[in-house]
Amino acid sequence: MTNKILELKNIRKVYDNGVVANDGIDLTIYESEIHAIVGENGAGKSTLMNIIFGEIKPTDGEIILRGERVSFSSPKQSIEKGIGMVHQHFKLVDSLTVAHNIFLGIEPKKAGFIDKDKMIQMTKELAEKYKFKIKPEALVRDISVGEKQKVEILKALARGAEILILDEPTAVLTPQETEELFVELKAFKDAGHSIIFISHKLNEVKSISDRITVIRKGKTIGTFYSSEVSESKLSNLMVGREVVRSFDKSPVKKGEVVLDIKNLGLYDNFGKKVINNLNLSLNRGVILGVAGVEGNGQNDLVKCICGLNKEYSGDIFICNKNIRKLSIKGIRELGVAYIPEDRMTDGVALDAKISENLISTKLNSKDLKKFNLIDQKKIDELSERLVNDYGISCDSINSTVRMLSGGNMQKVVVAREFSSNPNLVIVNQPTRGIDVGSAEFIYRRILKMRDNGAAILMVSSDLNEILELSDSVIVMYGGEITAYFENSTHLTETELGYYMLGIKDQRKDGGIPYGVE
Amino acid sequence: MELNRFKKNIAVILSVALALLISFIIILFVSDEPLNALKAFILGPFSTSRRFGNLIEKTIPLIFTGLAASVMFQAKQFSLIADGAFVIGGLVATILALKLNLPPILTILIIFIMSSIAGGACALIPAYLKSRWKTNEFVVSMMMNSILQLFALYILLNVIRDPNSGFVASFLIPEKYHLPILIPGTRIHFGLIIAPIVTILAYIMIYKTKLGYNIRMVGFNPNFALYSGAKLSFIIFIVQIIGGIVAGLGGAVEILGMYDRYQWQTSPGLGFDGMTVAILASNNPLMVPLGALFIAYIRTGADVMARTSEVPNEMVYIIQGLVMIFITANLLVSLLKDRKINRNMDTQVANGASEGGNNGTAI
Known about the structure:
Number of helices of chain B: 16
Strand order of the largest sheet of chain A: 6-9-10-3-11-12
Number of helices of chain A: 17
Number of strands of chain A: 24
Radius of gyration of chain B: 24 Å
CATH class of the largest domain in chain A: Alpha Beta
Number of domains of chain B: 1
Structural class of chain A: alpha/beta
Number of strands of chain B: 0
CATH architecture of chain B: Orthogonal Bundle
Structural class of chain B: mainly alpha
Oligomer: heterodimer
Largest sheet of chain B: none
Shape of chain B: globular
Radius of gyration of chain A: 26 Å
Order of helices and strands of chain B: HHHHHHHHHHHHHHHH
């Protein structure tokens, strides 16, 4: 680990929509080293890797490969120079064999036709060389996720990769598969090659890598020897703040019940039960956090409450009114505000103006109309006020939402929803993929809504968020509520984790099943 | 973004200019007297009052079908029904004019209303299938157009055909129901007053009513419209019906303004030209008359050119095709892409990021 193989100097990337993904990244990779890149979601890791791989052109900065300045305009060129990348989402052809996937596009030929026997032979040799266990003749659609990943890695190696970029390789693996992968990666390293390893699982990063570079907000925060840096230090560097409950919350002032769900059940389109006999009630002045690994029925629950799914059994009452027969508009008129999980697909119209996005739920009232026609002046006034109140940074209210950063986009959604004086606020992943500043702002707004007497149901996969904001917490597992903590002040992430993974279940542990109060 | 709208307009103008330029180059090659041909093409529409009249006469129906298309396009509903609805609107107008015997103004009003309703009815099937079953409105409306045209032909041949006419046409529409001529010496008729009124109504509907707002949001992002509480399937339905209504009215205005007998054995194709108009106008109703004027202008110019030189009339389809390609391919929009945004955002993010500070000890 003495020869520099790859060096990045002051890499910057500004996307066409104005998002600055990388803003001054320095990175040095040595021969036979495993170098981890860590950072929060949206810190710019993936952009950086795509720059190295030649999929994205940097706006600024230098890439020096083996002492020579390079500028890739496509992955083809970087592959020729010995760089390989395994994407988080596999790019394989399901209907072809493992061997064919590995040699796709560079197939050995005999008399102009693909030489399948030789291909399988070459695959075996390659796998043996790096001690990979795979079945060359199997079809990719028949093999496991872990095996697919090996195929991806071999695909890169077959093209002569000496620098291997792995984008969150362990996200899809079981612990055993992860261990196996690590053994293979170490063999690869011992052969003199380099690995760039992206992850945000800090314990893994520490166990596998030689050095670690922390990236935050598109900048290199520092590079450390794995042996000399602790996980908590890394975590602090990544987030740039202490991960603790940092908000001074006023004591809970519980009001009347706003949301009451009785015996809710739901099947998905494939006939699978996604919500099973769920009971829940939520009072004014309370933030109820819904924790759970994604896909355990949280989104389905939200859809039922918001009127986007009417196929459920059981009953949902909002402000004592059964919503089964109500339209989405009707439900909104009961005073329901909703921050959707994915702002891009549901929360905003990207090519409409900011002002148009801010009023989409407000045109029923007379306030924005004159002679029953839309009064542009009143809309502009309202929009200006909301943009100021919610600190949405934009050129003008007439800019399209597409021009905004993720955080400001989310603020547009929040401004629209929270300004309607709601009784019930549903927030689904309120701060996913947005900057810390906007996230804090949104947290404060959620707390303000609670203090103003709204009932808040917050679904999030970010445990920190759940613990920081919630007054009470439920955990959803397999479409059921498996845990309820009426007061979550002393709840820990570890404890929550047990319930989220189904290791613990309050109902089985003799606790009181959570239900109607 | 206002800037975006401005750039879009520039892109349209550039597309038109580029299409014309290429057409001129083609004319230079195919014509023995290219300068005369070009002169006829460019100045022809203004050379006599009759030709200028032709220009305006051609503009009027294009405004109607252009509005029909732009309203539907606002909600990203690519229905071709304006073509069939236009024909049926004209047919219904003819039948009523032949059968009714009431005071002229009242009759004309009734005709306009009934033709509009008939046009709207034409759009029912594709609109309903789309809103209920998500059937592709493009395909269904195209098939519907065939049915409507053949239906109109059937009625023409079997019900309203005047056997004494020298060509296939209906009985004479009574003179009292003809729309008044506005400018003597031309055939510019009262439709020139109706079209701007409908234009303004369409503009108000799209930009000043809640329905129009919802129509536009459905066009931008149907999920967003749904989530905000708009009745998505209703909007998808009603916007196509409105398109049919406007086109049907256009057909009636055209028949009562320009013809003394109904004689369309095939569709005059104005519904399709209306789509070009809508694209030229970026779907903004207020810009539709300009787009219609442009299409009418190159049509009239090509007519004059065909009569005074050996360049064929079909030249106009090349121009129209090129304009469509340039605009829809968004070629020029991307060429005009604004790099300034990047710079603005740079400083913003840089300021934001520096708060974090650097507390890592780098090696």
